[in-house]
Task: structure prediction
Amino acid sequence: MNPSSQPKRHDNVSRRSALTRLWGGALAGSAALGAGAVLPWSARAQTVNTVRPNERLISLGGGITEVVYALGAENQLVGTDTTSLYPVAAQHTPKVGYLRSLSAEGLLSLRPTALVASSEAGPPVVLDQLRAARVRIELVPIDHTWAEVQRKVEAVGRATAKVAESRILQARLDAQWQDSLAFIAAFKPARPPRVMFILSHSGSPMVSGSATAADAVIRFTGARNAITGFRGYRPMTAEAVVAAAPDVVLLTTQGLDAMGGAEPFWNRPEWRLTPAWRQRQTRQTLVHRDALELLGFTPRMPRLVRDLHETVVRA
Result:
């Protein structure tokens, strides 16, 4: 794929700040269950009371908010968190702050009747205050699997009284997902490329080990994570870059922006000792995607993994 066909980088500082907090907060608890786990039904959601149509809904988590719009239930939204940036219309909804550091006063000021959030939302005392105020709450567990996307669709369908529509959407997404997996499985490279994911929205760059959203996405594309030996994220060092010997470097668009773009990125001397540097003239070895699309396990996942497979594995 030609680099010019990638999404354009954005200079919106507030957008980058919101995503920094989202993915930075995900470092500690990125995937305790592992990328292949499927939760039992009893653990898939935490709900109270009965769903009514025409809720006053608050959606917390960019992937969950995407589902609200995909189901055409955005007229029920009275608030979203700062990670809810897609579609563009979501950026203009009342914001309640970062989903990990919520305020009961701010949430209740919107007079919500229902709230759907990722299980990362909190603190717990705030959610308890909402329950005491008779707000129906549904928490969607995060485990970096396709089942996570399914749970988001299912939860939003219940919360918005659009169960039938959610089943239709899920069937369509499941078909797209299976098509993408079949397309990826049909191509078996002699040596899957080694991909290093770098998270660099602010502060020192971090590299992704196993049990993270980035690790799961890399493996879904048919590539290999160049970083092994630990779970979660660790600071990127020159020694780690050289030892990992990545063929491709994957970043969020916002992270590449924070590093000043492609030219300053490649100017770090350690990259000159990697296959990614040596191959950069003949193939695309620096790949970036929007942070929410890449790491948010949204309804765009089927398209994302196929696109990355074509860019990274079949190149």
About this structure: Residues 1-16, 22-51 have pLDDT under 50 and may be disordered. The longest strand covers residues 194-199. Residues 209 and 232 are 5 Å apart (CA to CA).
